[in-house]
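User: Show me sequence and structure for the first protein, then do the same for the second.

Assistant: Starting with the first protein.
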Amino acid sequence: MLRTKRIIDARYQLAVYAYLHACDQELLALKPGNVGVHAAGHDMTLEQFQISARVSAEPLSDPGAVLGQRIYFAANATRDAVGCNTNLGIILLCAPLVQAFFMTQSTLDLRQALIQIIHDSTVEDAQFCYRAIRLVGPGGLGKNDVQDVRDVPDKTLFQVMSLAAERDQIASQYASGFADIFEFAIPHLAELRQHFISQDNWAITALYLGLLARYPDTHIFRKHGKEQANKVSRMAQQLEKDLLAQGQTDTVQTQLRQADKDFKQAGINPGTTADLVVATLFAEQLIGIACGEEMEASPHFLQEVVQPFFSTKTHLKEVEYGCN
C-alpha cells in the first residue's frame, strides 16, 4: 500500500511539474493578442496568469479526482485567486490529459488513455463542467437549444462536447480525441524546434501562429464573428510565413509586437489558440515522462515556480524520504 501511494504521489508531482512548465513556457513566448511576459492585455496581467497556473495545478492533478471534479475545482481555485477567466480553456484541455497520464502505467499510451477517459465520461462530469463554465462566465457564450450551458446537462461530457464541436475548438478536441494536438501541433512543434534550435520561445511563437493560421480561433468567432476570426487567421498565416523565412529578426519582432498591440486595442484575443498551445506543451511533456525522458527546465522556472509550489506541499516529502 505504501509503495502504491508513493507511486501516485510521484506521478502527481510529475503532472504538476509538467503543467506548471507548460503554462510558464506559453507565457514566455510572444503571441500577438495574448497576455505574456511581453505585455498585459484585455484587463489581465502576467501575474494573474502565473497565479492561475499555481492555484489550479493541485486540484487539476489530484490523483483521486474524476474528470469533472478536476475541471470544476481547478476553475474554482482560479476564480477565487484572480477573480477573472484566465485559464478555463487550459483547464478543460489539460484535465483529461492529467487523467490519461495516471492511466499510462497500463498498456495504454497517452492518447489511447485520453480517448478512453473522454468516452467513459459521465453525466456527473458534464454537470461539474457546466458548473465551472457558469462560475467563470467566459465571454461570447450564446444560447443553444440543446444542452445549453445554463441548464443542467443530462448527457455525458463526451456527448455534450460532441454537440458543441462545430462551434468550439475545445469541444472539438473532446470529440476528435484531441486530433489537432496529437496529429498537428505536437509533430509540428518537433519540426519547429529543429528550425529554431535552442530558441524554444520562438518555436512556441511559431506554433501559436501555425495553429491560429490553420484553425480560426473560436473565442474570436464568438465575440467578433466569423469574418473577423478568418481575418485574424490570414494575418497569422503571413506572420508565420515571415517568421519561418526570416527568423526572429528585428523586422519580424516589430511586426509581431505591432500585431499584438493592434489586436489588443481592438479587443481581439485569440485565447483558445493559446489554450491549445499550453495543452500541446503539456501533452508533449507527459508523453516524454511516460517514455522515460528527462524534463529540461530553466533555472528561472525551477527557482521561481517549482520550488515555491512544492515547498508548501510538505505531505509530499514522504516520496523522497519515506520508508522502503
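Switching to the second protein now.
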Amino acid sequence: MSWFRRWRAYMAWRFPPGAFVPPLLALSFSGVCLSRLLRGSREWPSFFPALAAFVCVFLFFLQLRFIDEFRDAGAAAPRRPGPPVPLGLPSLRQIGRALAVAAVVQVIFAAVLSPRALLPLAAVWACMALAAKEFLVASRIRPRLRARVWGRVLAAPLIYFFAASCDWLPRQAAPPPGLVLFLAVAFFNGLLVELGRGIRPPAPERTGAGASGSRGGPRKALRAHRVVLLLSFHGTMLAGSRLDFFLPTVLVMSVLLMLVLRVGSNFLDDPRAGSGKKLETYSGLFVMASYLFMGVIPLGAAQWTR
C-alpha cells in the first residue's frame, strides 16, 4: 500500500475530515470573529488570521488523536478505547513523525501571524503533554474518568483562546475584555461533547474510553450530560447578551436544547443500538451552534444591518 493510501485509510478510519472539518471550522472562525466583536470591530477578519486559526485548531485535534494512538499502544487490551493501529496503516513511528510535522506547521503559522502567538500555542501543547502523561486525573479524581477525556476538555478553552488570539495578538498584547466568559462556555462545550460520546446503550463488551461516560449506568451518565448541557446553554445565553445578540441566540439555542433533551429522553426509554450515537450527533450540533452564536452569526448580522 502506498504512503498516500495508508494515510488516507488512516484518516478515514480515525479522523474523518468530513466529520471534523465543519465543527472545527466553526470553533476556529468563531474565535477570530469573537475577538473582533470584543475589540469593537464589525468587519470580517482578514484571510490569514482566519486561515491560521483553522489550520492550527485542526492540527491540535489531530495531534490529540495521534497522542491517543501511543497511549493505546501501551494500554492493556481490556482498557483500550479502540483497536490498535492495524497492519497496512501508518506505524507508530510514522505517526510520531506526523505529530512533529504538524507542530512545525503550527509554529510557522503562529510565527508569521505574530511571534507572541507562540505563547498560546505552547500553552495548548503543554496541556496536551500533561494529558499524554495521564496527569493526576485517572488516579486522583476517579479511575473511570480517563485522562484522554479530560485532556480534550481542558484543552478546549485553550484552543479557543488560541483561535481568538489569531485576531488580537498581532495588534495588541492583552486580550480584549470579556473573553473569560467565552472560554468558560468553551470548557462546557468540550465536556458536553465528551459526555455525548460516552453515552451508549449498556453492553457487556463495551469498555474503555468510548464507554467511560456510561460505566456508572446510562441514567447517571445522561444526568451529568443534562447538567452540562444546561450550563453550556446558560453560558451561551450570557455570551449572546454580551454581544447584544440575545434574542436570536435564545430562540435558536432553546430549540436545539429541547431537541437534545428529547433525544436523551428517547434514549432512556428505548436504549437501542445507535440511539447513543444520535445523542452524540445532536450534542455536537448544539455545540457547533453555540460557537457560531458566539462570533460568526453576530458578526454576520452586524454586517447585514450596516
